[in-house]
Write a structure and sequence with these properties.
- The protein is mainly alpha-helical and 227 residues long.
- Helix content is 70%, strand content 5%.
- It has a two-stranded antiparallel sheet with strand order 1-2.
- α7 packs antiparallel against α8, α7 runs parallel beside α9 and α8 runs antiparallel to α9.
- The radius of gyration is 49 Å and the shape is rod-shaped.
- It starts with a helix and ends with a helix.
Amino acid sequence: MKKKAIIFSLLALLPVGASAQWAQIEHDEQKEKQWKSMENGPWDFAPDWYYWLMHNNYSGASLHWRWRGFKSSLGVEFDEDDSNVKRIMPVRVMSEETQRQVMKKAEDERQYIEELHKEEVLREADRNVDLVYSSFKDDFNRMQNSISEGLVFCMTRSKGKMKFQVDELSRQNDIICQNIAYLHKTGIGYELENAKRQKGYIDAKKQMEELVSRTAHLVGMAQSYYK
């Protein structure tokens, strides 16, 4: 209770306007005019006569007669064009624009890298899955059956006398099948884009079709020469 009584006694001794002065924010009109002139406000300074005498160069102050009837007088006016300094606002705006350009460029580069990453992910997925073999599988199986049956027929009909021709066609057929098997492999070390797989299968199909034709020709020879 004694502490509270002392505090109330001290407060009672304070001037009436003291608490108001503590809460009041001091407004400096001269400084306000100065920073507004430097930023984007009207070009004006105070006190005007002081700036005309002491800071005429950068304030652009000049004397002008102000006609106001009986109250006419000589006064100070400020002209930005007569000042030897420039506002800092254009510089700030330019700096902000430069920063925006830098940020935009960084964002464009980020999006470009992101697109490259997405494209690479799709390519990686494309390289690890054979999506085109199924389109050639039936043709390959059909032609392999024709070649196998034809070569077996030739060996049987000639009683082994056509072994050289049969072995040569078998060797070529093995090379074609090995190429197809390599194209069909997936996984680490066998990453191949499906467009390249498709081209390889098309080439293999043409080679196999030619081998089917040669086998059919050899079958015809076996039928003619070996009864």
